[in-house]
Design a protein that fits this description.
Number of helices: 4
CATH topology: Beta-Lactamase
Oligomer: single chain
Number of domains: 1
Largest sheet: 6 strands, antiparallel
Number of strands: 6
Strand order of the largest sheet: 3-2-1-6-5-4
CATH class: Alpha Beta
Strand content: 25-35%
CATH superfamily: GAF domain
Shape: globular
Helix content: 25-40%
Order of helices and strands: HHEEEHEEEH
CATH architecture: 2-Layer Sandwich
């Protein structure tokens, strides 16, 4: 599916996020390969969410988070569940919105440019399969607006992705 992003420069943040969900539905419903879908889902986030330096997923494997599809600079390959914002989100089973990563005890600096972070756990049928991780080079970048839409984004992924195949 070819995606055209013409006109996004005229959209406000919420319009972009709504559009991102429409494009995600189109991607997921028109392609059966789950790895391709997750990869393109991360590309959609990176293209439509401003002021990001990293967007990706970490997938649960053997009680740790392992790097999955992403957009951005190379990242940490593995994250123990008790470490960092990603580990905290997976362990607590809650979305973590961190305005300043330097103030988060146990933060892992995969990219020293990252200043704020938003992590949404990927939970389906009460099983934690991983996390969606967004990083920004700006302090206080993420708000409840992004939190709410990224939770919807994960819900939409859960409709189409059989996460068990990545265990």
């Amino acid at each position: 599916m070819a995606i055209k992003l013409n006109g996004i420069e005229k959209m406000n943040a919420e319009q972009r996020l709504k559009y991102m969900l429409v494009l995600l539905e189109g991607q997921l419903s028109s392609e059966s390969d789950e790895l391709a879908n997750i990869s393109n889902a991360m590309a959609l986030i990176k293209a439509l969410v401003e002021d990001l330096n990293w967007a990706g997923v970490y997938l649960m494997k053997n009680e740790e988070l392992v790097l999955g599809p992403f957009q951005g600079l190379p990242a940490c390959n593995r994250i123990k569940l008790q470490n960092g914002v990603c580990g905290a989100a997976a362990t607590r089973r809650n979305t973590m919105l961190v305005p300043n990563v330097e103030e988060f005890e146990g933060h892992i600096a995969c990219d020293s440019a990252s200043k704020s972070e938003l992590v949404v756990p990927i939970i389906k049928d009460d099983i934690v399969y991983g996390v969606l991780d967004l990083d920004s080079p700006s302090l206080n970048r993420f708000t409840d607006l992004e939190k709410n839409y990224m939770e919807k984004f994960v819900d939409k992924l859960n409709e189409y992705i059989n996460w068990e195949r990545f265990l």
